[in-house]
């Protein structure tokens, strides 16, 4: 009997999983960008369309997932409080260690020493040079939740979703129609995600072709030392995560294979948003309850940015040495504390990593214009730091489930085909 088209497609998917297709797309895109740069530059719309499609579903997915997670845990405020406290404790510890690693690697390799610096990129227009903390905390509360969702402001949306979920948990049976609606929305978003992500290999090809066609030469010359040290540090962070997952009772290679799809998407698209739906599904299939995943992952997306913290401390130290600034103990402590605080205060800010760099540079007396020196290779570093952010949130969810979410169970086991 002849195989149907669906059966052939399923067989192809089993022989070549999506993460392998993405990897092939990455290699093909790099080759096109290097060999045929004109064609590579013209393929950028493929990646842009894919990222826009993912962003289209992120906000309804986050709102419904967080609201449902808080609603289900809201019946036990002690349990919710314990998980929240442990989540923020781990977020600060992990990002703090990554900041220390950036400072340490700069002290070992000195990538900025003796470098003749020239600006290789442009600073974004109207880039903030400091953080208005009063405004930051006021912005946590959305005066118009529809507008916040429309503007893709994740933190005000999280705040409203948490308050809404807690409120639903207090009104008993009257909450059921709303809960059923949100469960339907969440299920539909996962189905839609599955359809969009199926086109990710083609999108990755377009993105990498454009990157290497338009920026490939810069990484080979101007900032090779900084990029090299960054990826040495990224490897150290990844190995640390692997060791931690082993200590938590997981087989690191199997776990890495299961999260390969969101990691490759993060690396090629430089967007944590793109990976959010698929990472949540992977973690649920690992046996972590939806209640934990729906709370920890969106929160970590905004507050657990290990790769970004490492990049920021390394880059500031690099620029300081390049400008001939002696990094004494007070300067190092200033970089450490300012990065740790500012890293949590700009999750809702455009060009967040560059804003944090501006804040730290100002705090140690360097010109903000120094950001333009690293802007030219920021894309190549951004790939690595985004992948580290995603892997860090994977580890955070596993760790917090084991130690902060003990006893938390779902009412219904998530569908494998969701």
In short:
By secondary structure, the protein is an all-alpha fold.
What features would you describe in this structure?
By secondary structure, this protein is mainly alpha-helical. It has one domain (19-403): Sodium:dicarboxylate symporter (Proton glutamate symport protein), CATH 1.10.3860.10. It has 20 helices and no strands. It has helices spanning 5-15, 18-35, 37-42, 44-73, 77-109, 133-139, 145-150, 154-168, 176-197, 200-221, 224-247, 252-258, 260-269, 272-285, 290-303, 306-322, 329-345, 352-363, 371-375, 378-403. Helix 2 (18-35) packs across helix 10 (200-221), helix 14 runs antiparallel to helix 15 (290-303) and helix 15 (290-303) packs antiparallel against helix 20. The model is unreliable at 4-9, 218-222 and 412-418 (pLDDT under 50).
Which helices and strands occur, and which strands form pairs?
Blueprint: H1 5-15, H2 18-35, H3 37-42, H4 44-73, H5 77-109, H6 133-139, H7 145-150, H8 154-168, H9 176-197, H10 200-221, H11 224-247, H12 252-258, H13 260-269, H14 272-285, H15 290-303, H16 306-322, H17 329-345, H18 352-363, H19 371-375, H20 378-403
Helix pairs in contact: 2-10, 2-13, 4-8, 4-9, 4-10, 4-14, 4-15, 5-11, 5-15, 5-16, 5-17, 5-20, 11-12, 11-16, 11-20, 13-14, 13-20, 14-15, 14-20, 15-20, 16-17, 16-18, 16-20, 17-18
């Amino acid at each position: 009997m002849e195989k149907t088209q669906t059966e052939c497609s399923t067989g192809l998917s089993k022989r070549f999983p999506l993460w392998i297709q993405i990897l092939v797309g990455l290699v093909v895109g790099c080759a096109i960008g290097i060999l045929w740069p004109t064609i590579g530059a013209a393929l950028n719309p493929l990646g842009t369309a894919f990222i826009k499609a993912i962003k289209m579903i992120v906000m309804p997915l986050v709102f419904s997932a967080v609201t449902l997670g808080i609603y289900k845990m809201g019946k036990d405020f002690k349990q919710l409080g314990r998980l929240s406290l442990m989540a923020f404790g781990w977020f600060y510890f992990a990002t703090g260690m990554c900041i220390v690693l950036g400072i340490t690697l700069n002290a070992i390799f000195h990538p900025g020493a003796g470098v003749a610096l020239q600006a290789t990129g442009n600073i974004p227009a109207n880039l903030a040079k400091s953080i208005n903390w009063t405004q930051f905390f006021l912005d946590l509360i959305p005066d118009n939740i529809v507008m916040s969702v429309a503007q893709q402001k994740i933190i005000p949306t999280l705040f409203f979703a948490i308050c809404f979920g807690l409120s639903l948990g207090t009104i008993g049976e009257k909450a059921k129609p709303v809960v059923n609606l949100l469960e339907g929305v969440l299920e539909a978003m996962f189905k839609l995600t599955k359809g969009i992500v199926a086109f990710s290999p083609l999108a990755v090809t377009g993105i990498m072709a454009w990157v290497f066609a338009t920026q490939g030469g810069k990484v080979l010359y101007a900032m090779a030392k900084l990029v090299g040290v960054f990826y040495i540090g990224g490897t150290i962070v990844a190995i640390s995560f692997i060791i931690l997952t082993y200590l938590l009772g997981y087989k690191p290679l199997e776990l890495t294979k299961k999260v390969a799809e969101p990691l490759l998407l993060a690396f090629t698209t430089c967007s944590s948003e793109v990976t959010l739906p698929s990472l949540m599904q992977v973690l649920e299939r690992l046996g972590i309850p939806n209640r934990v995943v729906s709370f920890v992952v969106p929160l970590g997306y905004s507050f657990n940015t290990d790769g970004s913290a490492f990049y920021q401390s390394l880059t500031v130290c690099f620029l300081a040495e390049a400008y001939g600034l002696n990094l004494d103990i007070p300067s190092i402590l200033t970089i450490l504390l300012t990065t740790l605080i500012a890293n949590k205060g700009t999750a809702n800010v455009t060009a967040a990593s560059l804003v944090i760099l501006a804040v730290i540079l100002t705090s140690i007396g360097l010109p903000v214009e120094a950001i333009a020196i690293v802007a030219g290779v920021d894309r190549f570093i951004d790939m690595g730091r985004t992948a580290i952010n995603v892997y860090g949130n994977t580890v955070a969810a596993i760790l917090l489930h084991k130690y902060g979410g003990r006893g938390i169970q779902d009412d219904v086991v998530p569908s494998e085909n969701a």
